């Protein structure tokens, strides 16, 4: 077991007494989320914490002490470069690094893993050495995807963790508050200083009944995304409750929580139940199940909350599992939800490509034993009736533990016979690490992943990516045609005969237990002081960080120019693209060459083409930013709603800071990105009147007054237009006192580094 049992005993004994104290103070029943949050106001090891009081949801910033940290290799590089510059000898809480994002899917698992080990050797060695030195558990390439490995080894009911990946909420399937953050937040927790979060609002989702036919756990979140949209969960934690929760497996719950990131939720979680206990036991953590059983009444909402949910949650949504249909979401956004009974019509009406070019199962979202076992029952039916996949069919297992187990139990063999190509246990096509051959034209793919923004999977903006359950994906892989509802209509086998598929059935856990991954994990050194970590100054992959210079609030914020006024959706993928850029995640200057290259310039409708106001010529966004920086001209970015939605990647905040940006001014922000900008010393600001976005012209000059930055006080943007006229635009912000300290110091890290030297 890779978890410290003595530590866990301490966590559970604190949990009960902390909840009792909080309930007494609040004088009312508590939701499960509140129990976890209120029980993490102090470090698990003791020490001073945050004063207990009745926190205002959506209002009060609260200092929390999470139990653990997880980082994936793409974000860990920058997180650990920052941790190294904080001057702290060892991480304060259990932390792990997982090598999953840098493996490109092309040929097959073995070949692709060997290629990744060769191409990323420098980065893997850096991550392994830093981990050994600073007391961090290291999961090698091929061991699995961060969220699956966390669920299999570290997540526990009643716990709280942060992870440098937006799908960290996957651990909510084991009843944990698990939140996706940027690397600078991870540095806070690893340094033992409290981690700050605005106390979230609560959305209660009541599940009634039980799933029938082809419907699966994934369909619950696909349906909810359609109801709440990509912004609906912003600033909120989604807590599931009701009789339907117990009918879902632990990994099914994990899938739902994972994809809660797609509605912008801070995280999602389920109450503790016997399905979670079963999973803990099967993954070698019977002792933790026993500890959780002892406080089981505390690991769910109080009874009166369930009776009167409207009184205790800010919003309540009910989903009836008995009548839930399989859903297909997309293309291009995960909240465009269509039930399968209406999908063929939607495909035809919208002119989406009917023929499927690829079907993909796996990723951190949907690669559990249950997922694979259920799709295998469909594959077996198809094979016995002479049908195979009618398009490219890829499987990416979530972990070596799952892969080895489904190999032993025969599912992989069946799926291979049906035409599946099994890729490495890694993110692969889910993050655009898919060296796809062909299919450059308009085409449709269907995946069991979580995210389907334009060009996300294969880099091709013409690819229409649909998100569905693994069961739905395999159904469509067998039809090869998005207009055939295989749940009701016959499909055609390889001889041209009509056959019917029956709904899937499967085990959620292997009867014979999981096959252990004996080689994937490297324990850190007990005393890491002798381990040396070096960065080659010539490297194009890694670059030591120089601290950002503190701003001069009197002179740095006038004469600003507009770098880009972004139109429409501007996700972290638009701000700092993934795909081939992933390799520069440890080199700030090199990766800054992708700054905002995906954003659409509202003045010409084009990506990566903006007017340089000094030279008067059009150029690429990063080159223009570099030119302004070289000339000592500060700049701003203007954008629309939910700016920075998507992943937790802090490069989207580091890059504008590195290239001389001063402020990002938008109609609204996605939570993680807004915090990331603050941590790096940028000013994330929102238009008090969103329509003021329209007043911004390409050749304006701007001035801001951050000298007056104070909690709750608006800032003024003075806009000088080229025609001599001017506008004063009022801007809101969400800085509190502590965050203003980050801004004044130049970055949050500068503050940590200065206090660690004292
Ligand atoms: Fe990886 Fe995709 Fe999950 S990128 S961590 S598999 S969302």
UniProtKB/TrEMBL annotation:
Cellular component annotations (GO), alphabetically ordered: cytosol
Q: Name one GO biological process term.
A: tricarboxylic acid cycle
State which Enzyme Commission number(s) the record gives.
4.2.1.3
UniProt KW Metal-binding keyword: yes
Source organism, top-level taxon: Bacteria
Q: Matching Pfam families, A to Z?
A: Aconitase, Aconitase_C
Keywords of the record, alphabetical order, are:
Iron, Iron-sulfur, Lyase, Metal-binding, Transit peptide, Tricarboxylic acid cycle
Q: Which Gene3D superfamilies match?
A: Aconitase, Domain 2 (3.40.1060.10), Aconitase, domain 3 (3.30.499.10), Aconitase, domain 4 (3.20.19.10)
Give the reactions, separated by semicolons, that this protein catalyses.
citrate = D-threo-isocitrate
Domain Aconitase/3-isopropylmalate dehydratase large subunit alpha/beta/alpha, chain residue ranges per copy: 35-480
Cofactors, names only: [4Fe-4S] cluster
EC main group: lyase
Q: In which pathway does it act?
A: Carbohydrate metabolism; tricarboxylic acid cycle; isocitrate from oxaloacetate: step 2/2
* Annotated Aconitase A/isopropylmalate dehydratase small subunit swivel domain residues: 562-688
Q: Name one GO molecular function term.
A: metal ion binding
Family the entry assigns: Belongs to the aconitase/IPM isomerase family.
Q: What is this protein called?
A: Aconitate hydratase A
Q: Which organism's genome codes for this protein?
A: Fluviispira sanaruensis
Q: Organism classification, top ranks?
A: Bacteria, Pseudomonadati, Bdellovibrionota, Oligoflexia, Silvanigrellales
